[in-house]
Amino acid sequence: MSLVTKLIWTFISLGIVTIWGLTLTGIVAKIFARVQGRLGPPVWQPFIDIIKNNAKRTAVSHGIMFYLGPVFRIAGGIGTYMFIPAIYGSLYFSNFSVSGDVFLVMYFIFFGQLGMALGAGEGGHPYSAIGVARGLAQMTAFEVPFALSVISLAVQYHTLNITEIVAAQQGGILSWTLFTNPLAVIAAMIAMLGMNMYNPFSVVIAPQETPIGPPTEYSASFLGMLATNRGIFNAAKMVLFMNLYFGGATNLVEMIVKTFCIYFFSVFIGVAFPRFKTEDAIRFFLKVPTLVGILAIAVFLI
Amino acid sequence: MIILITGLLLIIIGFWAMLTRKNLIRIIIGFAVMDTGINIVLVAIGYVKGKTAPIIDKAVTMAQGAEAGIQAVDKVVDPVPSALVLTAIVIGLAVTALMLAYAIRMYKTGNSLDIDDFEEQKW
Amino acid sequence: MVNPLYLIAVFLIGAFLVPFVDRADRRLSLGVMYFSLLYTASLSLMRLWQLFFTNGNETQVFTAGFQPPLSIALSFGFKEALLTFLVNLTGFLSGVYLAKKLGKSGVQSISILLLLMLGANGLILTRDIFNGFVFLEILSIATYALIGLKSKKNALAAGFKYMMAGGLASALLLIGIAFAYRYSGTLNLDTWGRLLIPMTLGYKIALFMIIMAFVIELKPFPANGWALDVYQSAHSGVSSLIASVHTGAVLYFFYKLLPLMPYEFLPLLAGTGLVSFLLSNLTALRQKNAARLLGYSSTAQTGLLMFVLTGLYRYNVHPSLVLFIAGGLFFTNFIAKSGLFWLAGIIKEKTTEKWSILRKQPLLLVLFGVFILALTGLPPFPAFFAKWEIIQILAQQGGWVALTAILLGSLLEAAYLLRWFGLAVRQNSDEPETASLPYLKLIPPLIGTILLFALSLFMGSQLYVLSEFMYFPLLALLVFSILDCCPLKLKGLLLVAAIGLWGWFSVWPRLMGIGQLFGLVLIGGALVQVFGFLHHKGREAGLIPLLAMLIFSLGNLLTASTKLDFFLTWEFMTLSSYLLIMRGKSSHKAALSYILFSLGGAYLILTGLSLMPPFSPGMAFYLQSGFHSIGLVSTILLGIGFLIKTGALGVHVWLPDAYAEAENEFTSVLSSVLSKAGVFGLLLVLVMAKDVLAANNLLLDALSWLGVFTAFFGALMAVFQEDVKKLLAYSSMSQLGYIILGFALMSHLGWVSGLYLTFTHLFFKALIFMAIAGVILRTGTRNMYEMGGLIKKMPISYISVLMGIIAVSGVPPLSGFGSKWFIYTSLIEQGHYFQAGLAFFASAIAFLYLYRLIHTVFLGQPKPSQQNVKEAPFWLIIPQAIFIMVIMGISLFPNYITKPISSAVSIFIEKPDWLSWTGYNITLNSPVLHGNWNGNLVMLVTMGVFGFPLLWLLLINARTQKVKQFNIVFAAERPYKPWTTHFAHNMFAHYNKALGWLITPRITAFWNGVTEWSHSLAAAFSHIYTGNGQTYLLHIFMYILVIFIVGGIR
Amino acid sequence: MKELYDTISLQFTLKDFHQQKPNLAFATAEKQQLIALLTYMRDVHRYTHLVFVTAVDWLEENRFQITYMLHNYDIKADFGIRVMLDRDKPVMESIHHLWEQGRVYQRELHEMFGIDFPGSPGVNEPMILEGWQGPPVMRRDFDTAKYSLETYDHRPRDTREPESHMKEKLYPED
Amino acid sequence: MSYMDKTTGIPEQGITPPIPDTGEMPDREWRKDDKTLTNAELTLEEQDWFCDARPTPAKPAWGPVEKFYNWARANSLWILAFGTGCGAIELRPLVTARYDISRLGMQPRPTPRQASVFMIGGYVSIKTLKRIVRSYEQMQGPKFVVAVCSCAINGGMYWDSYNTVKRIDQYIPVDVYVTGCMPRPEAVMAGFSKLKELILAGKAEGQNLYAEKFDWYKANQKQVIKDWNMPDYNW
After folding, report:
1. A253 Cβ partners below 8 Å, 6+ apart?
2. Which of A106, C334, C359, C660 is the most interior residue, by most CB within 10 Å?
3. List of domains in chain B
4. What are the tens digits of pLDDT across the range E117-156?
5. Which residue has the higher pLDDT, E185 or E13?
6. Count of domains forming chain A
7. What is chain A's mean pLDDT, rounded?
8. Residue C365 falls within a domain, yes or no?
9. Residue C323 · residue C389 · CB < 8 Å
10. CATH architecture under which domain D2-154 falls
């Protein structure tokens, strides 16, 4: 496949995942509303919001890093997706996953977060820094069970290569990691709750105390870009989880269904629970989920 | 033997005085007593009963030749301890004198002859 | 043949002549004194000349024309000649030093001084025991009299105590001689030695009394209260004479007596020496009075010498080696101690606290430093070689108790001496300027220093270490010290040129494999950072010479070919880095803890090296060719020693303070380069200990856990720092933990990860430290919360730090990710899953402190006090620019670094087949783990995905209003103060709540406890010195009794 | 409460005792004795809590009344001490050294009534009215409606009688 | 200065009534030039901390595009609720299941930067007006203002209050007023519907109005807000 074709397919793949990610956000909002007995916004509301934000006539910028923050963020989101093979066996949807293995993806997730944190920091608003401090602190905690879970997968499948991990899960629903290594999946799914920042781990964007956390100062097209990234990044994360734990996908429909189900898990928890304080969230992640993660490795050592 | 014991007794008495008396002068006296005791011990060690003093006189004829020389040596007591004693007396005297000088100057600067008053430096 | 009688005669005549000529003129009598001293010194020198060049071997001279039993024999061999030369020279120097005092206090003092010299010379020369007694008494009486020169109450009291003790000793000696004479029938030592006298109890007791008399004169702990008082209160010139001439002469006579002693005495004496050494040093810890401190040190050194003279017989050491060791220790102590006493006299400050006035006197400071460092046993001074040899002997022959005692004692000694040095050098004191220096008094210490260096070279030449390893650093120090008056930039550029040429033409060709890699890191890394030092405005006296010494030592470390070379270089490095840390503003405490830990580590390394086979083909050689095995103990000792240098958990206590307090640019060198010397050493150990480690899996496991805990706790502690340099210091500690972890794997991939991190850590840590150096320079504070918003003022520094933190945190696409990828894959590949998990946690925590670093310093609210801050100086930007380019380069083309590392490692651990490079893609196809990383592609993809959104934003955001710092949404209010609006202080309070309990400073508390405890012990010991002469007398008596009983003399 | 009043009266000049409830009473004190009285009440009779300090504008008598309300936690009783000030020269001693919170009340009284408390920390700072430049607003001689009409532009209003207007609007044929 | 001197009802520095809206722009000292403001009420040091740019009107995009944009704006109204008075309570029912404004694409937003509708919920005292001005200026355009309750319209029951402004539209442009004391949530929603109509019709250009008549608005604001203590325009 020539580079041009590759790039074209990459754009197509990216477009699909963006649309799906944003729709997913809309669906989730709808679900939240229905749970609360409301009608809720239309599922395409995220698109309208993004258009509106991009249509703003003015914007403020606090400096170059502030300007680049959303760019970092969306580059992190897109990049994360770029390094994940979206659909197993599809040459067109494998993106640039040959660049590296699951560790590359795990670390590239930080790229956007770091850039965003820096941008928010230059905004000079204390709430931004507070939000970032909370987010980073929580991130260190939920990364532990997630990392242990990934290590457990490496022990199980003898590979870190995502494509190979997916390949090892082919052949029926029972060969999914979900069933072959349930402990790792439990640890990872709890970590995912933290990653998605729904309740009970939503203290980072706490809209009441620190108005929506890090992006407090962002407006207009910056905000639009952040919202776009939220769609892409969520979808990318779900694709990663799908690949690692739920047998991957062999076609688009399967991908959409699976990612929806995975995402729904954190929504399900999110609508039902109140919020943790940061230190409680850290303690929580470092107790049971970490223990489960350790067990997930330990079972292979015995 | 009695002399030896006497000497040792003197040493002990002198040392005892040095250890227990508080007055500087008494300490110095103790030292002098000890010194004397040592000298007596030295002499006692050197003395051999029935032999003459190591002075070349009639009793010890100045003989020629090695054999005779040894004979002559046999007749006298060992001269070396005696020589030691002489030196030791001199040295002891010097030290005692110096100590007394010190005592005087200490009295001048410290207005006291009590050794307990001279323990400002410690630790 | 020079007749030794002249020596005695000259003094005698001089002493008698002086009162007569004094009637004419005081200067005449002084002239007589100087003449006598100089003349005797030159006689000794002539004798030395003779012995060396005319090979005259007859040494004995008999007085009164009789053969030995009947006459007194004097011996004038090499030892005596050297000793009398030194003694007379010191006497002369003391005379010079005391000139004013002597001139004032009258003719008798001149006479007494000459008599003292007479006694000392006689004691050294005579071979007759009773004659020795006489000379000892002359020496002592003269000393008493000299002490009495100072008519202060304390001096007089001390003199009197001394006389009481001396009286007891001489009584003992006299009785002993008398009784011994009964058994031997001779007083001549040589004749006596040849007699085979049956060791009856009486004879033994007699000998015991003789030797104990001399032991008492040598002031052993604890029977030395009188001596300490004398040192403290006497005139410093007199103290110096007692510490050097008196002690030297007595010690030599003690040495002459040793052949007479029964063998069972020797361990006893050795034991007393050791006890004296250890406990005197311990007691000195609490001492604040400079002169008394020197007294403790002097008694300690004498104790060590006693041990050397008596203890080493057990280990079948060649007598000449014993003399070599004793000589090294003795001469160092001799010169340095008298020098320090002289200095003490010049300074006139009693307590060590007040010695900071030295700072204003560079010459005095240098002299003081030389003496202190010589006493501490640092190279190139003779004590270093002596200590090296002692430890060699003891370690190889299993003298563990002695070895421990000596090293412990040395460490304690270093502690109080260097603390004193630190007090003198510290900058935060505001002492008034001292009056003009008494230049006459400066001559003696100056000559002493020169003598010390001459002796160092002599000793070095005896051990065949007069190679580049010794003289390059010293030469560099010397040359750049001479050039020190030049402008800083010229010096710096010269240094860069010198090191560049030397490194390229001399070091590089001799290196291969890993050696080359470390060469790049150590020399190259240091060289680039030299530019950073050049921004200072002033001359920065002392900076460039020390830096030169450091970098040359670093280079030598790589090419050192023998154990001694290696250790010498290691100590040079420690020394120069210590002095460089001392340049910091308030760094004396930090530097002290640095040097103490370093010395502790160095002693462990020394012991470990000693345990290695004696005829090894060279250290660095191992890193180039084959393996060479060392034992388990050696492995552990060396390992711990090098780990101290890297600052591993448990021995990291020195690290944060030293990093924080050193000069900003030097912190960069410390972190990025110097810590790599420890890594190099560790690697060396791992190479050599392969067999041991193969047999002991536990060791490697322990090392890997140590590494990962270092990484984890380092990161966690960094999170809670407010001081930017401390934060970075802990960050360095954390990174070094990863390096240790990588090496502990003992696999190809593990070593590649360790080396890769070694490299990248150099780049990004130096980058960050240099940028932060600029920031601190401009803002004048190290507290991060006092900064803020500096991105607009210092954009280049910001970019440096940004690149640095992206690389440190391991976020792709920059090179830092490579190290993370290598370390995790190698850990998982080797089955170290839990370490991998914890390492991942640590690397996640790194985000916290890195964000804090960049946010609090560069982002957020600018402070009004920093309104006029400018970009960092050009010279600081140079290294940053270089490192940024390097980082970008290796991020885009990682093969340039990964491939050489892999091929270098494969010399030791063969590259497995499953690790392969296809283009930029590193593929891992191990049976237990698959994975890949293509740094180049990652970089390109990232640039792509970054570029498109940026273009979009630029396109759509036409009307963006640039606003200022307070144009923020502040809940409908407005912010008033930037410093309260800046969210910076205690940034991770919530993290502290959750995990803060993990970092309660237990280890620091432990080390503080050690310090506290040893000080309490010192205080307890020091309380035996009640100040009462009679108590001291009792001490002596009890001491002898105890030794008699302990010795079990039967 | 009467006993308390009698007890205090032995030392201080009090008048106008008024028992409003079993555990609430008022009395008027001399201005000069107030600080001593408050201290005495606080330290001796354990009226340790300052409930509030408030003022009344007796315009007709041309004086201000300040009431200090004290509370005793032990017997759960309140005692109000009134002080009369000259309205032309309303200055009172500060009690912030007795109760820290007193300064807040004093600041409020200063802003609202123009009563000055020399020495009270921050008493001149505006409390509620930022940048108010008019007279003290709670004084009874301040005509707020007049001020409002003079100061603000009022929206012109169509003033109609609601009843007739609605009738006209809804049932025009009637 | 003590209040002792001003015991009479006449203010010492009389507040002059607002300038009638004649279209003639007052020339005041806060106007440095066409682009910048003086920020004269701030200290010199503080002037460094605030942006001094003047707002300028923003042109709408090309017709059809602007129509599309307006559709998006109308269907994505993010509310910044300013609860000044009792009307503040009326927003809460709006987000509950009974009224549920989210089905119209509306949602409350905690920061002015991201909101597009400014909802003023009641009487506006002078102290509050200062905050209102600040928050309004911090919003990014196009921005719309909905003022709720009769107090916001003409002072309502506070018509004779000495520190309540009577007409908000003299200080910031208001798009929609909702009458009532207090208006029911249905009335508020009706107001929002009206706003939507205005936006779709392209008539809700309050931001541009504010920029064009900036001097007039500013003069009025400064007449009542005596301790200004903030930049002339809060970016």
Report:
1. none
2. C334
3. 2-117 (1.10.287.3510)
4. 999 988 898 889 999 999 999 998 889 999 988 888 888 8
5. E185
6. 1
7. 89
8. no
9. no
10. 2-Layer Sandwich (3.30)
CA atoms within 13 A of residue A138's CA, in its CB half-sphere: 29
Give the residue numbers spanning the domain of A231: 3-301
The per-residue pLDDT for C250 is 92
Nearest-CA distance A297 → chain E (Å): 44
Domain ranges of chain E: 44-224
Chain centroid offset of residue C884 CA: 35
Structural contact between residues C365 and C357, judged by C-beta atoms closer than 8 angstroms: no
| pTM to 2 decimal places | 0.90
Amino acid, single-letter form, for residue B102: Y
Are the CB atoms for C149 and C107 separated by under 8 Å?
Answer: no
> How big is the A-C interface in CB pairs under 8 Å?
257
Contact C309, C254 (CB under 8 A): yes
CB-CB neighbors (< 8 A) of A37 in chain E? 97
Within C59-141, strands assigned E span 60-62, 73-75
Strand partners, D81: D27, D68
Q: By C-alpha distance, which of D155, C973, D153, D129 is closest to E223?
A: D153
pLDDT(E5) > 50: no
The per-residue pLDDT for range C911-966, each reduced to its tens digit, is 888 888 888 888 888 888 888 888 888 898 898 889 988 998 888 876 788 888 88
Q: Give CA separation, B38 vs A276, B6, C471, C952, C1032, in Å.
A: 91, 10, 57, 109, 21
Q: How far is the C-alpha of C483 from the C-alpha of C42, rounded, in Å?
A: 35
* Residues C256, C127 contacting (CB under 8 angstroms): yes
Q: What is the rounded CA–CA span in Å between residue B115 and residue C1029?
A: 7
* Cα nearest neighbour of C174 on chain B: B38
> Which residues of chain D are within 8 Å of residue E151 when distances are taken between CB atoms?
none
Chain A partners of C817 at a C-beta cutoff of 8 Å?
104, 107
E226 at interface of D, judged by CB pairs closer than 8 A: yes
Question: Across the interface, do C972 and E230 touch by the CB < 8 Å criterion?
Answer: no
Closest in E76, E103, E142 to A49, CB measured: E76
| 3-state SS class at C640 | helix
Domain residue limits at C639: 464-944
Whether the CB-CB separation of C11 and C60 falls below 8 Å is answered with no
Closest CA to C1022 of B122, B118, B117: B122
Closest CA to C1039 of C471, C268, C223, C491: C223
Choose from B73-77, C146-150, D67-71 the range with maximum mean pLDDT.
Answer: D67-71
- Of C535, C442, C449, C547, the C-alpha closest to C498 is C547
Three-state secondary structure call for residue C494: helix
CATH topology of domain E44-224: Rossmann fold (3.40.50)
Q: Identify which of C959, C965, C973 has the shortest CB distance to residue E49.
A: C965
Q: What is the identity of the amino acid at C190? A: D
Query: Quick check: is C510 in a domain?
Result: yes
Closest CA to B92 of B26, B43, B42, B39: B39
Q: What CA–CA distance (Å, rounded) separates C672 from C691?
A: 31
ipTM for the complex shown? 0.86
Buried b (16+ CB within 10 A) or exposed e, C627-659: ebebbeebbbbbbbbbbbbbbbbbbbbbbbbbb
Q: Do chains E and D touch (3 or more CB pairs under 8 A)?
A: yes
Q: Is the pLDDT of residue A288 over 60?
A: yes
Q: What is the dihedral of CA B45, B47, B50, B53, to 10 degrees?
A: 160
State the Cα angle at A106 between A104 and A107, rounded to 5°. 65
Q: Within 10 A of C18 (CB to CB), how many other CB atoms are there?
A: 24
Question: Which amino acid is it at D80?
Answer: G
The pLDDT tens digits of the residues spanning D20-32 come to 999 999 999 999 9
> With contacts defined as CB-CB under 8 Å, which chain C residues touch A136?
847-848, 851
